[in-house]
Every structure is written in C-alpha cells, then in structure tokens.
Design a protein that fits this description.
4 helices, 18 strands, SH3 type barrels, twelve-stranded mixed sheet, Fumarylacetoacetate hydrolase, domain 2, mainly beta, four-stranded antiparallel sheet
C-alpha cells in the first residue's frame, strides 16, 4: 500500500510524492507508470495538499447503494453523470453553498483513480488493470436544484461541488474498501465497497464501453444511506481504508 499526493509549496510551485509519516518523498510526474523518487522530501506541514490527480473527465455513478435507494428500484441502465472540471475542490478547501440553492447535502464516496488508458474494457480483469488506486470523494449535491432541473448541471456541478483527495491509496482490494463520512465529528455515513450495486470493475467496464479513460481521470462510485443537510460552519470529513481524511468546512 502506498499513498500518493500532490502539493503546492509556499513559493507557488507544485509537485507530487509519497506520503511517509509527516513528510512527503518527492517523485517525478507523471507517476502512473513508474514511481521515480527524486531524493528530495518536504515536510507535510509546510505545503498545501492539492487534489491528487488532474482529471480530464469526472464521471459519477448515482443511486448505487441499496441504502441510498430507500426502496426505489435499481436504475437500469445505471445513472451516470459528469461533473465539470470547474467544480473541483481539494483537501482543506471550503464548500461554498450557492445562493438560492436550498438544501445542500454532502455525499461521501469511494473514488476510482484511473492509471492506465482504457477503452472498451471487455473483462473485469481489464477494468481492474486500468485502476491506479482510490481516493475519498464528496459529491456535494443541491437537492432542490436536483429535483427541479432536467439535468443535474448545477445541482452536482457548482463550484466546490467536486471534492476529492487528499491522497490516492494503492494496493487495496476493490471489494473491501471501507467508507466513512462524518459531519462535525458525528458519523453520518458508513459502507463497504462490497455493498455497491454495480461494483468497481463493473463501473469501469460500463464507462469505458463508451468513452476512453486516461490516467488521472476519476469516477465517483456512489454514496450510501441518507445524507444530511449542511449549514455554514459545518465540517465534513470523508475517509476510506488506508487513506488520509478529506476535511472541508462549509461556508
């Protein structure tokens, strides 16, 4: 298991590395094919962690846990949608509640990070082979806009609604990833990836059947349970097996 991060130094330059305790061992970018250490390290406390990849595509799966369906039928075909790149926010960034959005919920999720170009994966093995690792995601969702609009463009795509990070965790078994979401320290969501209706290799297979995925692309896999409404000042934390906590404050 390894934990990859991207970071920004105080001088404004950015880099990537392996998280090792309180420091980051700097590696050459891109690191998808090989991890090459530069011999340099930086103190974690002296840098700002960034979203751990720079995706070209952000794909999301909706309604993918029975606990979130709340008795509704399983969607067939599955519910898939996109987030714009402008929605991206990272660890420590504020969640901004848009004016007039009404109720806004956090949705903690396991996020797939693609590490190998894949198009039309024909098997589960090929789908898994395209995955570099996993990170935490928070699919912020404006419920009134979601119900009112024909498309979820603003309900799921507003600025700061596409949060992920802080690290990419490698070496995890796809069906044994634990997910926890906390709001103000109290557990709000909990699930294990084997509870997904469409599991991780099936998700990659479905998406790659119609669009090419490249290294750095991410896929949100769905959220469990019934998320709660957010208010200014709330602190949301999302955590997956082996990873650091994704923490964001609401304003």
């Amino acid at each position: 298991m390894a934990n990859y991060v991207r970071f920004r130094r105080p001088d404004g330059t950015s880099g990537a590395g392996l998280l090792e305790g309180d420091s980051i061992a700097v590696v050459k970018e891109p690191f998808w094919d090989a991890t090459i250490r530069t011999g340099q390290s930086v103190a974690l406390a002296e840098v700002k962690l960034l979203p751990p990849s720079e995706p070209r595509s952000i794909v999301c799966v909706g309604l993918n846990y029975s606990s979130h369906l709340n008795g509704r039928p399983v969607p067939d075909p599955p519910t898939l949608f996109f987030k714009p790149l402008s929605s991206i926010a990272g660890p420590g960034d504020d969640i901004v509640l848009p004016q007039g959005a009404g109720r806004v919920d956090p949705e903690g999720e396991i996020v797939i990070v693609i590490g190998r170009r894949v198009s039309k994966a024909t098997s589960r093995e090929a789908a898994l082979d395209a995955i570099f690792g996993y990170t935490c995601g928070n699919d912020i969702s404006a419920r009134e806009w979601q119900r009112a609009d024909g498309q979820w463009w603003r309900a799921k795509g507003s600025d700061t609604f596409g949060i992920f990070g802080p690290d990419i965790v490698t070496g995890l078994e796809h069906d044994k990833i634990e997910l926890r979401t906390r709001v103000n320290g109290a557990e709000a969501q909990h699930a294990i990836s084997n509870e997904l209706i469409r599991d991780i290799p099936e998700i990659v297979r479905l998406v790659s059947a119609v669009m090419t995925l490249i290294p750095g692309d991410i896929i949100y896999t769905g959220t469990p349970g019934e998320p709660q409404a957010l208010k200014p000042g709330d602190v949301v934390e999302v955590e997956i097996t082996g990873g650091q906590v994704l923490r964001n404050r609401v304003r």
